[in-house]
Automatic annotation (TrEMBL):
Keywords: DNA-binding. It comes from the Bacteria. It comes from Ruminiclostridium herbifermentans. This is Excisionase family DNA-binding protein. The keyword DNA-binding applies. One of its GO terms (molecular function) is DNA binding.
Amino acid sequence: MQPATVNNYPVLWNAKTTAEYLGISYWSLTELARKKKIPFVPIGDRPHFRKEAIDQWVIEQEKASTKPETNRFGIQKIKE
């Protein structure tokens, strides 16, 4: 039986494949997972990643990077 794939990739990716897909180091990715800053599925003691969740996470990161900064009261900061 063949494993389920999306575009010839397994449905769950290991950290090496995910890091290559994102263009970051393996160590950076595992640190993001350890800090629970990126979605992952723990299998044993290793994180695995779904492409759909990673793609959505990238979109969310992009949106967050373009939001104006606000203070703790939700008031937009003025850039000088």
